[in-house]
Design a protein that fits this description.
single chain; alpha/beta; globular; binds zinc ion; TIM Barrel; binds glyceraldehyde-3-phosphate
Length: 310
């Protein structure tokens, strides 16, 4: 089916207390693994392409890959821009046809983040596309070890979450509640009370970034507290790379990229399926589809039906 936008999908998940997995794709094999896993689990899914992935492969190339697999799938698939950190990237993704966007101004001063996010929300909404933004800051574990104090320092407060949400008009809100990006080991616990307090004040889908490093039981509690979209990247990268290494160590003479590409794809698919079940989005595709078809949050601008301009 055609790509869908993330608005109604996330509202349905929020109201029905499960979370939608948002999985980062950096190449064809990973995008295919994510969509195949969603098909086999009958799950709605978000395939996300980060600003870094755009730098690596280009927005039109990755968008075309996701779109073509989504069109063959029977489950609803969103193509989302992850961590667009400048205006140009958000506009490029919108123009390429992405059906969901993120502007990440979390490194900016609060007022500047509000100002730029609000102007991008207006543009995205005029084109019929929902927008996620971040307040507080999810730190990067790959830049060095993080103390509990450092993680806490950047956490979102319920007050700033409410003010940011009301002033910008975003459709979903990424909050910092104890996770960190690019953790290679699952060891972080989230501040569940903080999530509940933010959700009290922000009646919109809340987004968890850096989920690869979060313990499973903390993820389950976070969903009950109001987290609705959960982002995984590092675990997929790990699964991919481990499979390639294993395949090549078993057969050092191997040169056919498809042979280790297919091993990597299968391993990523296995991880995505496990995460989908953890989030409770398995067997939700049909319900999401019937909810989506009855809802219209944006006027039909036809912009996502335009041909891709290379
Ligand atoms: O935006 C993407 C994510 O927040 C993924 O984080 O690589 O730590 O799973 P992760
Ligand atoms: Zn993130």
């Amino acid at each position: 089916m055609p790509l869908v936008d993330s608005k109604a999908m996330l509202i349905y998940a929020m109201e029905n207390k499960f979370a939608v997995g948002a999985f980062n794709a950096n190449n064809m094999e990973v995008a295919q693994a994510i969509i195949e896993a969603a098909e086999e689990e009958r799950a709605p899914v978000i395939v996300q392409i980060s600003q870094g992935a755009i730098k690596y492969a280009g927005e039109n190339c990755l968008f075309a890959i996701v779109k073509s697999f989504a069109e063959k799938a029977e489950v609803p698939v969103v193509c989302h821009l992850d961590h667009g950190v400048d205006i140009a990237t958000v506009i490029k993704a919108l123009r390429a046809g992405f059906t969901s966007l993120m502007f990440d101004g979390s490194s900016m001063p609060f007022e500047e983040n509000i100002k730029i996010t609000k102007s991008l929300v207006e543009i995205a909404h005029a084109a019929g596309v929902p927008m996620e933004a971040e307040i507080g800051k999810v730190p990067d574990a790959a830049k060095g070890p993080l103390s509990h104090e450092e993680i806490k320092k950047y956490m979102t407060t319920p007050e700033e979450g409410k003010e940011f949400f009301e002033k910008t008009g975003v459709d979903s809100l990424a909050i910092a509640v104890g996770s960190a990006h690019r953790m290679k080991v699952q060891s972080a616990s989230l501040d569940i009370e903080r999530i509940m307090n933010i959700h009290e004040k922000v009646k919109a889908p809340l987004v968890l970034h850096g989920a690869s490093g979060v313990l499973d039981d903390s993820i389950i509690k976070a969903i009950k507290a109001g987290i609705t979209k959960i982002n995984f990247a590092t675990e997929l990268n790990k699964a991919y790379t481990e499979a390639v290494k294993k395949k090549l160590s078993e057969d050092p003479e191997l040169v056919d990229v498809r042979k280790y590409g297919e091993a990597a794809r299968e391993n990523v698919k296995k991880v995505v399926k496990e995460k989908i079940r953890l989030l409770g989005s398995n067997n939700k595709a049909e319900d999401v589809l019937s909810y989506i078809s009855g809802k219209k949050y944006f006027k039909d601008t036809g912009i996502n039906k335009m041909p891709i301009v290379e």
